[in-house]
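In this section we walk through a basic example: taking a raw amino acid sequence and producing a predicted 3D structure, encoded as discrete structure tokens. The instruction is simple. Fold the sequence below.
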Amino acid sequence: MSHIVFFLVPGVHLLDLAGPAQVFFAAADFGHPYTLGYVAEQPQVPSAQGLPLLARLDWPELGPEDLIVVPGWRAPTLADSPAIGTASLQALKNHHARGGTVASVCAGAEALGQAGLLDGRRCTTHHDVQEELALRHPGATVVRDVLFTADDRVVTSAGIASGIDLALHLIATRHGPAVGAKVARNMVVYARRNGHEPQASAMFRHRSHLDDTVHRAQDLIDARFAEPLPLPSLAAAVGVSERTLTRLFTRATGGLTPLRYQQTLRLERAEHFISHGATVEAAARSVGFEDPRMLRRLRARPAS
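The resulting token sequence is shown next.
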């Protein structure tokens, strides 16, 4: 079980906090429990929206698998941000030095900058304060037009709701894109493309719909894409006819049949194996193709 500790600063934005917290809370429903904790420099923290929040004053013992998240706060500029004590900044720095991950949402990147964690790393923040962040922390590389960045266990996200995208990315990285897709579906949110950076998996690209029948079919394919999955068996598993499943699936995914979706997942996994030194033949066998010629044909086909 991993600990997720949110460091709260006065004026914290509720969605900066609640969005990522809900992602990790929902992950428990899929067998990946997290313990959520809240730390601040005062026992009661006023939020920007007026709701007071309670927090502990002492930091729990954290290990490399644990995560600290700094949600953003309301302030006219980063220079006007609430003061953060030396001990808190040192706690952020120490956790990263021990192998842990530190993340921020929106203006929370300023806390990471004050802790020295942005120096030499890529980062982002809300578009209103990106230029100021770059000026205040010249050792950082501030990336524009992305939802989040990840660089050497320092993860930063843009404004407000992008904290959900950041948390989904961390879930997918730790537990696989299928789990990330399930959590996104559970929260009824779309997995959004991260600016100029290509989305990592078809499990995300083709999940931006609300058809529960298709989601259930995708859950089965995601979990067993290397196995034979005949359309009659897949349709029976989700309780519809073969014709209905094909029609719903094609409409929800922008033109993919269940077989084409399965082939797309196989292709992506095979490309991963090939990029790590596997031959086409070995990669084909690993993802369920009996004939490597099918993999070669799929690799030559334009991407979905």
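Looking at the output, two observations stand out. The mean pLDDT is 92. The beta strands are 2-8, 34-40, 44-46, 52-54, 67-70, 101-105, 122-123, 141-142, 148-151, 154-157. In the next section we compare this with other chains.
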